[in-house]
Structures are given as C-alpha cells and as structure tokens.
C-alpha cells in the first residue's frame, strides 16, 4: 500500500491523539471530513492502524521496581533460545525482552514489587530450566526518557 502525505499526516496525528474528532483530524490535514475518514478506514483495513488505546501510567497505580537484566545462556541453539523466550512470555514481571548481539544474548526489563521479589524471580530461573549461564542486574535509579508511542512522517521520509 502506497502512503501519501495525507496518510502519513493522519498516522502522525492519530499516534499522538487517538481521540481526536473526525472534524479536527480533517481540519489538521486540510481535507474535508468524508475523504479524511475514508483514508482512516482504509488504513485500518490495511492493518496499518491496529487499534486505539490509552497510555496508562502504571507507576501511578502500583509502585514497581524496574530492573534491566543482561542474560547470557549456557547453550546457543534453537531449543535453548525457544525455551528461554517461552519463559519470558510466561513471566508477567518481564515487561520487555529483546535478543541482542555483542556478548550477551538477551536484554530484559523486569518490573518487580521489590528488589527482594526480583531476586526470588532470578533465583527461580537459576535453579530451574531457564538455561542461564550468567546475568548482570542494573537497578533503575531514574527514568530519563520513556519510549513514545508517537509516529512521525520522518520515520518513513528520512
């Protein structure tokens, strides 16, 4: 699907404000309401717009301790990677997990109730079948920048 400047502007605006009215969106991209809304429906149908949601500040609701962890596995084969990744999916305290290159295998973000709860989680992985060779823990002392869910036309136009 080829996107033009109107489509890109719609995506940019909706990524920042999914609750914008049809008329405000049309006004922002300088189109009338019907053609603008038809473009939105086309973007939804194509799967480019997957849905709309609120950004919830979980820290206001529940105080959690964020911890970043570098993980190196004992074995480097498909079965070991699949087993570890299944464990990450099954662990609600793991909020992010990425496979990385350059000396370690995974970088994960754990949000635990406390440092003690985090350590119990790690201890369980080490005594279980997670296949961890070694790990490095980094306690978050301050969040400097949070990922933005925003979309920018520059993401596609350079």
Strand content: 15-25%
Give the tally of structural domains.
Answer: 2
Sheet with the most strands, sense and barrel status = 4 strands, antiparallel
Provide the helix percentage: 40-55%
CATH H-tier superfamily of the largest domain: Lrp/AsnC effector binding domain/regulation of amino acid metabolism (RAM) domain
CATH architecture assignment of the largest domain: 2-Layer Sandwich
Please identify the top-level CATH class of the largest domain. Answer: Alpha Beta
SSE-based structural type = alpha+beta
Order of helices and strands: HHHHEHEEHEH
CATH topology of the largest domain: Alpha-Beta Plaits
Shape: elongated
Sequence stretches where pLDDT stays below 50 over 5 or more residues: none
Number of discrete helical segments: 7
Q: State the end-to-end distance.
A: 19 Å
Q: In angstroms, what is the radius of gyration?
A: 21 Å
Q: Using DSSP, what is the number of strands?
A: 4
* Biggest sheet, spatial arrangement of strands: 2-3-1-4
Mean pLDDT: 90
Q: Could you explain the architecture of this structure?
A:
With 158 residues, the protein is of the alpha+beta class. β2 and β3 form a beta hairpin. It has two domains: 5-54, Arc Repressor Mutant, subunit A; 58-139, Alpha-Beta Plaits (2-Layer Sandwich). The chain has helices at 5-16, 22-29, 33-45, 58-61, 78-90, 115-127, 154-157, and strands at 65-73, 94-99, 106-112, 132-139. α2 (22-29) crosses α3. The protein is 42% helix and 19% strand. 9% of the residues are buried. Strands 2-3-1-4 form a four-stranded antiparallel β-sheet, with helices on one face.
């Amino acid at each position: 699907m080829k996107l033009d400047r109107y489509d890109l502007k719609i995506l940019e605006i909706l990524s920042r404000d999914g609750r914008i009215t049809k008329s405000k969106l049309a006004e922002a991209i300088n189109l009338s309401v019907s053609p603008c809304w038809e473009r939105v429906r086309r973007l939804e149908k194509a799967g480019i717009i997957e849905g709309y949601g609120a950004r919830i500040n979980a820290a206001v609701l529940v105080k959690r301790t964020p911890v970043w962890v570098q993980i190196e596995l004992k074995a480097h084969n498909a079965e070991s990677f699949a087993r570890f990744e299944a464990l990450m999916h099954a662990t609600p305290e793991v909020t992010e997990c990425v496979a990385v290159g350059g000396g370690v295998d995974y970088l994960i973000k754990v949000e635990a109730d406390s440092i003690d709860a985090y350590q119990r989680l790690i201890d369980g992985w080490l005594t279980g079948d997670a296949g961890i060779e070694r790990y490095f823990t980094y306690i978050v002392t301050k969040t400097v920048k949070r990922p933005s869910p925003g979309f920018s036309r520059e993401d596609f136009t350079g």
